[in-house]
């Protein structure tokens, strides 16, 4: 990793040209080829899929998308000449448009059924020659404009259908742009530097742009659903900014501690960059876990999301060091550069708030754990009423023409009209079947089309809406009782039946999927941290985070708490495929934070074998970066409410809630509190298992840094010596009154004082730890505001030395 980082840093112009060439090359190819996204949710070996296959065989000419023009009069009926004279010419004009296959008018000889009983609402069906995602947007806009031009006072005209939905979506990129702007604000506040703020954004945009264009090219060779690029943007933008944030933060700290920019960049990539590689690989593996579901629809989602994550990691490990090389010292703000020049290098230190919170968690672990757990359980309660299904145009905002058309059809022809079922009979007489269906509870209308190639399609309109549980029960009655008792071989299809089957299959396979990704996470953390308890805790936390985030999702989208206020439309069931996608993303992101937090704790544990200190220091030093990264992801994910896509909005809100709960409650409260309560058992691993596990270093030893003329082996003591003994000095710094001294600078020198080996700053509780390269005698100095600088000789054996320091005005005394 260090070699790659150094090469990219020194050959920065070459790396930049390669990335720009890749971005524009793939972009040009993607624009020229266009997109060919699939939008099929069918599943093999399901009843609805068999019905669809039979319909496609019998009626291939009806394979294009069918949309609806609906109109309503305030007075009189739609049969009035004043209405017909406006609507009929518009329908005729639409029928002559290139790309429109057929227009079925209620004014035709067989169109009486397309007029409501009270005569005030009617509809016409417009069948395009292509499926919705292939219909040119200009054609759809012409259809909408032509139909709505027929409106007048007292005559309302609305349009519904998949193709119509596409033209009312907001411009592509709005959600991404808002997310980027919000992330820029957070980064600027965190870094205080314009150039440092731009680095993560440039890296994320380069990776995301390349990934989206590559996804559009892949749509020509494999089935990629239309929602896949949106989800790719969602995860790619979030992880791309976060991964770059981790590396830039480490790089800036290195410079502030006296390292040259090139060495700081190499060290950052060789430490945080390795963690990014591990985290990115974990996210991709979690996404690949969706393949366990054996749903072809999800294969394209795996491709799009994994591709953007891989490119985000690649950009963070190649493009970012090149950009760091271009900026040099300008990665720091002007104030930081002036302070560095005037006061010299500073030691790495946790923020006062982070240190105080960490100390509070250590003092009251039970209270913190119980409070956090109760909060998560309350948020998870709505998940008990989770119902999977499908959103449709009835969930759109009230102001949209698709929602208006949906409501008009429900008003004129019944709520079930928007989700008719197709009972497809392959052979034999169907009169008995039609009669049986007509007398079935929950059926409003039944109409059988003339048979074609021995196949009969029976249109069944339920009395309830497509999203109603009663409609699901009707499908089950038809399949389990009515059709078998009629003696006819038939299958129940239609969009409503397809999504019911999808929800059923998802529900059946979801436990296997959850077991697979939880097991995977357990094994990865087991190898990384050489512990059984840490991965078990992480698995439990992931389940709690998932339950709470889905609880928030159910409350907002299924119960309707604030959907209209947020501009999300009407409440309804949770989209069937969303749990699988969200759990994959949530698992990957949670692993990122868990690795970042626990790796620092593990490092302290290896040094001191003091669990309380390991947890306290690890939380104090990582919580700020974790919270900053989480805040960026929350901004990016929440912005997808503006995508105009209900599934995108669900995924964005759900993931934003998951990240917020994971970072602000689980990783900074519940996890450290639980680890304090578990004590040394956190790091227990059976000896036999220890010997059999492969070794996987998430972060290697930090490279030597030149600090104040010190040359090498400065931080080698951050790992045990060859005999396995920890060689550190740690303890507390206290004032003459016995109170903790925060911000005291402790420096470990060689015995003669000529070589500075390590330097740290005491935390809010006065604790400190300095690293020692090997057993022997050293000089330990301490300075603090209001105290004179003093030094004492210390002798370190093969184990860690506990050395508490009392600072007085004129002397430095060891308490023990």
Automatic annotation (TrEMBL):
Transmembrane segments: 173-191, 198-218, 230-249, 275-295, 301-329, 368-390, 510-529, 536-561, 573-591, 625-643, 649-670
Membrane transport protein MMPL domain boundaries: 41-367, 459-685
Record-linked InterPro entries: Acrflvin-R, CarboxyPept-like_regulatory, MMPL_dom, Mycobact_MmpL
Keyword Membrane assigned: yes
Localization in the cell: Cell membrane
Domain of life: Bacteria
Topology in membrane: Multi-pass membrane protein
Keywords: Cell membrane, Membrane, Transmembrane, Transmembrane helix
Gene3D superfamilies hit by this protein: Carboxypeptidase-like, regulatory domain (2.60.40.1120), Multidrug efflux transporter AcrB transmembrane domain (1.20.1640.10)
Family named by the database record: Belongs to the resistance-nodulation-cell division (RND) (TC 2.A.6) family. MmpL subfamily.
Protein name: MMPL family transporter
Organism: Streptomyces vastus
């Amino acid at each position: 990793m260090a070699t790659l980082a150094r090469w990219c840093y020194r050959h920065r112009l070459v790396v930049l040209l390669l990335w720009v060439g890749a971005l524009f090359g793939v972009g040009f190819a993607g624009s020229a080829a266009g997109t060919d996204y699939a939008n099929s949710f069918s599943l093999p070996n399901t009843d609805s899929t068999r019905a669809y296959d039979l319909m496609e065989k019998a009626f291939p000419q009806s394979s294009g998308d069918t949309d609806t023009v609906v109109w309503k009069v305030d007075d009189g009926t739609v049969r009035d000449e004043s209405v017909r004279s406006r609507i009929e010419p518009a329908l005729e004009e639409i029928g002559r448009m290139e790309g429109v296959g057929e227009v079925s008018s209620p004014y035709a000889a067989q169109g009486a059924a397309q007029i409501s009983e009270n005569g005030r609402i009617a509809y016409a069906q417009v069948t395009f020659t292509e499926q919705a995602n292939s219909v040119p947007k200009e054609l759809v806009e012409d259809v909408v404009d032509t139909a709505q031009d027929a409106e007048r006072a007292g005559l309302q005209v609305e349009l519904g259908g998949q193709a119509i939905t596409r033209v009312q979506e907001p411009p592509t990129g709005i959600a991404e742009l808002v997310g980027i702007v919000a992330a820029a604000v957070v980064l600027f506040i965190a870094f205080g530097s314009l150039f440092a703020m731009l680095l993560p954004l440039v890296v994320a945009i380069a990776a995301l742009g390349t990934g989206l264009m590559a996804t559009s090219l892949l749509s020509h060779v494999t089935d990629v659903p239309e929602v896949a690029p949106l989800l790719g943007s969602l995860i790619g933008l979030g992880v791309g900014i976060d991964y770059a944030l981790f590396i830039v933060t480490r790089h800036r700290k290195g410079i502030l501690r006296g390292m040259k920019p090139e060495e700081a960049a190499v060290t950052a990539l060789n430490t945080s960059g390795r963690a990014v590689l591990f985290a990115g690989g974990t996210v991709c593996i979690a996404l690949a876990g969706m393949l366990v579901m054996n749903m072809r629809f999800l294969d394209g989602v795996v491709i799009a999301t994994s591709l953007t994550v891989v490119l985000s990691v690649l950009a963070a490990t190649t493009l970012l060091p090149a950009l760091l090389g271009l900026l040099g010292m300008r990665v720091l703000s002007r104030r930081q550069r002036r302070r560095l020049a005037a006061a010299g290098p500073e030691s790495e230190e946790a923020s006062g708030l982070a240190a105080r919170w960490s100390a509070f968690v250590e003092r009251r672990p039970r209270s913190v754990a119980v409070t956090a757990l109760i909060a998560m359980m309350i948020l998870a309660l709505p998940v008990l009423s989770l119902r999977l299904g499908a959103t449709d145009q009835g969930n759109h905002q009230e102001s949209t023409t698709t929602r208006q058309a949906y409501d008009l059809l429900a008003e004129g022809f019944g709520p079930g009209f928007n989700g008719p079922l197709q009972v497809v009979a392959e052979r034999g007489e169907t009169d008995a079947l039609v009669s049986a269906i007509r007398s079935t509870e929950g059926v409003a209308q039944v109409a059988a089309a003339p048979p074609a190639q021995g196949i009969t399609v029976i249109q069944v309109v339920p009395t309830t809406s497509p999203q109603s549980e009663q409609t699901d029960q009707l499908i089950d009655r038809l399949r389990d009782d009515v059709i078998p008792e009629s003696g006819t071989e038939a299958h129940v299809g239609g969009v409503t039946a397809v999504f019911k089957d999808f929800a059923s299959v998802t529900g059946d396979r979801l436990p296997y999927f959850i077991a697979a990704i939880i097991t995977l996470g357990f094994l990865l953390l087991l190898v990384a941290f050489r512990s059984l308890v840490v991965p078990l805790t992480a698995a439990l936390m992931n389940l709690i985070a998932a339950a709470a985030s889905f609880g928030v999702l159910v409350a907002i989208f299924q119960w309707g708490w604030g959907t209209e206020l947020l501009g999300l439309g009407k409440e309804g069931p949770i989209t069937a495929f969303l749990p699988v996608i969200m759990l994959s993303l949530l698992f990957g992101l949670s692993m990122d934070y868990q690795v970042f937090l626990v790796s620092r704790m593990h490092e302290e544990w290896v040094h001191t074998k003091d669990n309380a200190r390991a947890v306290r220091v690890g939380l104090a030093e990582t919580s700020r970066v974790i919270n900053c990264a989480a805040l960026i992801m929350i901004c990016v994910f929440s912005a997808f409410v503006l995508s105009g896509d209900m599934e995108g909005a669900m995924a964005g809100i759900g993931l934003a809630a998951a990240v917020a709960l994971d970072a602000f409650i689980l990783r900074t409260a519940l996890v450290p509190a639980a680890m304090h309560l578990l004590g040394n058992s956190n790091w227990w691993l059976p000896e036999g298992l220890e010997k059999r596990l492969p070794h996987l270093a998430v972060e290697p030893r930090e490279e030597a840094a030149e600090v104040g003329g010190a040359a090498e082996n400065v931080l080698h003591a951050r790992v045990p010596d060859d005999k396995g003994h920890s060689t550190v000095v740690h303890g507390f710094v206290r004032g003459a009154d016995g109170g903790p001294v925060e911000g005291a600078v402790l420096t470990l020198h060689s015995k003669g004082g000529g070589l500075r080996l390590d330097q740290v700053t005491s935390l809010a509780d006065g604790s400190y730890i300095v690293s020692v390269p090997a057993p022997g005698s050293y000089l330990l100095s301490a300075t603090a505001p209001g105290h004179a600088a003093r030094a004492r000789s210390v002798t370190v054996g093969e184990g860690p030395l506990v050395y508490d320091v009392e600072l007085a005005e004129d002397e430095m005394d060891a308490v023990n």
